Amino acid sequence: MNKLTKLSTLxxxxxxxxxxxxxxxxxxxxxxxxxxxxxxxLVRPTGYREWIYIGAPLTPNDMNNGKAAFPEFHNVxxxxxxxKHWKKTGEFRNGTVIVKELVSVATxxxxxxxxYFMGDYIGLEAVVKDSKRFPASxxxxxxxxxxxxxxxxxxxxxxxxxxESCAACHxxxxxxxxxxxxxxxxxxAAKGLGEKGIGGK
Length: 201
Description:
About 25% of the residues lie in helices and about 25% in strands. The protein contains four helices and seven strands; from the N terminus they run αβββαββββαα. The chain has a five-stranded antiparallel β-sheet. A hairpin with a 2-residue loop joins strand 4 (about 95-110) and strand 5.
């Protein structure tokens, strides 16, 4: 084998290796946003503030006799792959991750008038759709909490919560597939409409 042939063989091998590595990376990235540790716990999602922001429901104590179940703002995000699928089909794909960031009510007045205004981050929760991990009784959704009850510690992983903790309420009251679509106009506006549903089109 002459030097030119050897060089050509080496270049071909390097190109093939690079292509294989790139394809592996893409496949890994496309697997989704839900990652689990060796014990089956969901690893806390990161970078979610760059996902698609779909809404911020609030059920204040003032309107619930001082005993609201969730008296804080809920900043809610859906992962980009699932958002793309939602725009196309109007359905939540297997692998959907929706993150809910809890934010305290800081004040009820501002220069603009009276109302409810966000304070500090006090909690983080997530819901994941996975037909292989979660039962049909919860429509294959698993609910997770990454904050201790006192809101002081952010956890790196979370076990799936018992069905009666979240799934039962979602099943009875959510508009579509365990998700409170009635509270998220961003999702409603984009449902199955592709680029027409993203605003400004």
